[in-house]
User: Fold this.
Amino acid sequence: MTNRDDIRDRLQTVFRETFDDDAIELSDAMTAEDLDDWDSVSHISLVLAVERAFGVTLNAAEIGSLENVGAMIALLRARKP
Amino acid sequence: MIAALRPEDLEAGASASFEQRIEAADIDAFARLTGDVSPLHMDAAFARSRGFRDRVAHGVLLAGYVSRLFGVHLPGRDCLLQSLTLKWLQPVCAGDRLRFTATVTQVSPPARAMMAEVVVDDSETGVTVARGKVQAGFTGDTA
Assistant:
């Protein structure tokens, strides 16, 4: 399993727990428009959950760059080489 | 006095608490305000017939005090509640004295948000009557 695959799997777990939906399957292009419950409040919940799960602290620029799941994975790969 | 803590002022482990005695008049006022006049809350005989000690305080009345915990104490003035979950573990009746405690579990200044755990205990027995989690944002500057 590549590092990218590992991060994707862990991120998928975070998504499933945050949105309480075990059926969520992540894709790089996935955005808030693809999940009904991905609103502004749950986006913050997601950011906090990612920080806890990956042991990182995201700065404002990084949070603002999270356009889709692919961007999240790329960021986490950069932070956790 | 209302606190005015910013995300940068907080860290995991920070906490605040206060005590509140639940009066029958409070239950009455909440019933008038919300229209929830279930006899469980309004009729002592009915409540006892269902196995409770006395009229049961609305669970969401406790949530109102949780709102005070965050809106006045931690973080205070700039708090904007985003989500609240609360489990009511034990019934609360008129005359009970409760301690409401919030403890920060995570803060993200860049996200302008915090997470906290909430515990509501009976001050006399020490029994936890409610437990929950809060996610809160901050109003004010977004720099």
User: Anything to note?
Assistant: The radius of gyration of chain B is 16 Å. Chain B has four helices and five strands. Chain B has one domain: 7-138.
